[in-house]
Amino acid sequence: MPSVAVSGPGLAGAHLGVGSAGIGAPHAGALLSEPTPLSTSGLQDAMGTLYALMFKESQNDLSASSNLIQGQSDARHVHQKLETEALARERAAEGQGSRGFFASIGHLVSDVCDDLVHLRIADALSDAKDDVGDALASPQFWKDLACGATSVLRGAETLMASVVALYVAGPAGVAYILDKPDSPGARACAVGGQAALTAVTLGAAAPILVTSAIAMSVGGYVVSETKCLGNASAGVGLSLAIMGGACSTGAAITASASAVTNAERSVKSLEDATRVISGSAKVVRGAADAEVSGFEGAAMEAKADAQGERFCVQTFRRAVEWILDDAKANKEAHEHALSTLQGAMDINNRTIMAGSATTLRG
Amino acid sequence: MSGGVSVVTQLTVSSSPPAGPGTHQMPEATPEPLLPDPSQLGVRADPGAMMAVLILKMAREQRQTGTVERQLNETVQRHEEQAQLEAMRAEADNVRGEGFARGAGELVSGALEISSGVASGTGHADVAKSLSGAGKMADGTATFIATGYKAAEKLEETAAMQHGMDAGHAKLRVEDANDGIKDAADLSKRAIDFYREYVTAESQAQAAALHRS
Predict the structure, then answer these.
(1) Which of B5, B114, B132, B193 to mutate to probe the A interface, most A CBs <10 Å?
(2) pTM attached to this predicted model
(3) Is the ipTM of this complex over 0.85?
């Protein structure tokens, strides 16, 4: 016979059997017992059974909530771990803790030298391979390489601009380039200075024009910089610079193509060498920029992954809060219902006692 | 005593009005009156019980509405968060694309510049000029492509920010819906407390009347 053990107040460990007086045995498939004509003991047994069932339900609810919370917490811990890993990937892709260019080279050299000193040839080869791999996988290495290539490129451009400025405006021009390497004039000398340089190098047959060109360019620069002519300095300086340019072009037109001096040939060779150097620096910088942008993309993807895991953690944390709120509300409701039912049972017992006392007196 | 009957057994609410024998079932489209017939509530014609049942019905509907609203806004929040993550990943792809385009352009233009310098040094001035021009063209093309990637990157960044804000708004609405559900539970509890006090007062009055008589 199925039975329900009860330990609630007022029932003090009473053992109620389903199917005792007042409650019929349930037929197959029914959740509740068959109703019978209500009697005093039947009502008491029914309320007792109800109390037991409600108590059991409250325990089951607590257990279910506890399991749900455990499941949500476990899932939250998994996603927290994934978030931590994504953040570590982001830091690694940004280059935190990675070796720079010179540090990588130094590490490679020290490892290989140490192995060679101790005659560990195989280790030297494997260390060299590993260190080169580490360097190529290091974001800071590529960033340093890009910076270095940019510096070489700027240096080559400044050198070319200075050489052109030397021929166009003399030492004052060089000083101007070195003082303002990013100025429009410097950029024009670096980019378009080849034409001016060609014009000047072909000026061997027209030294007067060349000298005039240099003098007017220098004069124009000095006037505009020193403002020795007051408010008219800017206009006069510009006019002198334009006339100097015109003289330089005139010298090129009147010059003989074959009359190139040794000095001019040297300058041309320097210009070609500068072009090769700047081209090489661009190749290196191009490769470095591509690698650095790959690392930047990886860092942003890792950041997105970390954000996704953070969303999951927040969702699970919120779910746990809701489960706790529901469990607390259920517990209060069950306690409420149990105390109300207990009150009803007490009143029922007092009614029975009062009825019995009246019967005895009568 | 009638007050000894459990409060729980009295507050049974039927979800639909029972159809008696020979009666015609009303179609679902007919709107319900504001105050239902007491017999339809399944309780005796007791004002206190009616009030408690009405409040419980209202609380139940408020809880159902709150639950549906919470689920809807949770779905919206999840959708916006996913969209934000996709926009961030697309932005990362565009950053890579921009860098690769710029790097490839510099590689090609640098190689052509090297060739131009070598050609100029060996006396091939025309070839040098052509190579130099080709290098500038490669640089320009790469800059054009990289600019396109940069523009797409900015658009994705804006989209990610927009989706993030929308997800935040949905999250606030979820919290509001949850507060509505909590209020509904509180309302149910108060309805039951009210009915218990009502029944207790009624039974005490009956007991006093019996004692006097």
Answers:
(1) B114
(2) 0.66
(3) no
